[in-house]
Write a structure and sequence with these properties.
This protein is an alpha+beta fold. It has one domain (about 50-205): Nucleoside Triphosphate Pyrophosphohydrolase. About 25% of the residues lie in helices and about 30% in strands. The chain has helices at about 5, 20-25, 100-110, 175-185, 195-205, and strands spanning about 30, 35, 55-70, 70-80, 85, 90, 120-125, 130, 140-155, 165-170. The strands form two sheets. Strands 3, 4, 5, 6, 7, 8, 9 and 10 form an eight-stranded mixed sheet that branches. A two-stranded antiparallel ribbon has the order 1-2. A hairpin with a 2-residue loop joins strand 3 (about 55-70) and strand 4. The longest helix has 13 residues, at about 100-110. The protein is globular. The protein starts with a helix and ends with a helix.
Length: about 210
């Protein structure tokens, strides 16, 4: 999406070139009577919602794991929009790949600079997935590419919240229940609802 589209989003979805957007979609979706249809359970809401766009918008999220003194940690950020703690991430820029967006957003929001060539870091790009973003509707939704970087056994790197993040921290993450508990007891925070299932699935897989 261009800067102009972000500043002045199209108000009428029937004027959008849907065939080109469907061709570029990470997850196939239908268009009915000129309006996009979310490829998942209904939210009960229509229009652009808080996302301020129509149809799919792609993002990338950095899933950065590290083990320190036998405990596994996940790098999290506190969002600046009041939606809780989430993975570092954000929307893909035009012509940007999911990998490029993952690395860029990680550095912008936490100060942690990683590249896919870093020795000792195991990278995995998971398939794109529809996320239950509470800001979305049946006609505007987010799809994200989770990019995993496993640092292995290390001293936890220093991180700092920046850009869209007000805080960055390493949170215990043996499983998603452990993560939720540590966020509540250590940081007085809650996990961003759109990331609960995604994080739970990834932590089970690795």
């Amino acid at each position: 999406m261009t800067e102009t589209e972000i500043k002045a989003p199209e108000t009428d979805p029937t004027r959008i070139d849907w065939p080109s957007k469907q061709a570029a979609a990470a997850i196939p979706f239908q268009v009915v009577a000129g309006r996009p249809v979310r490829p998942g359970p209904s939210t009960g809401r229509t229009g652009q919602g808080e996302l301020k766009h129509w149809g799919e918008r792609q993002a990338a999220d950095a899933v950065v794991l590290a083990t320190c003194a036998g405990t596994r940690y996940l790098l999290m950020i506190q969002r600046g929009d009041g939606h809780g703690w989430a993975l570092p991430g954000g929307c893909l820029d035009p012509e940007e790949t999911p990998w490029e967006a993952t690395v860029r957003e990680l550095a912008e929001e936490t100060g942690l600079v990683l590249t896919r060539g870093d020795e000792g870091v195991i990278w995995t790009l998971f398939p794109a997935r529809l996320v239950p973003d509470p800001r979305g509707t049946d006609e505007a939704w987010m799809v994200t590419w989770p990019g995993l970087a496993d640092l292995g056994e290390v001293d936890l790197p220093e991180v700092v919240g920046a850009d869209d993040a007000v805080w960055a921290a390493w949170v215990r993450a043996d499983d998603v229940t452990d993560l939720v508990d540590d966020l509540a007891t250590t940081y007085g925070g809650a996990l961003f609802s759109a990331h609960v299932d995604m994080i739970a699935d990834i932590l089970k897989e690795i």
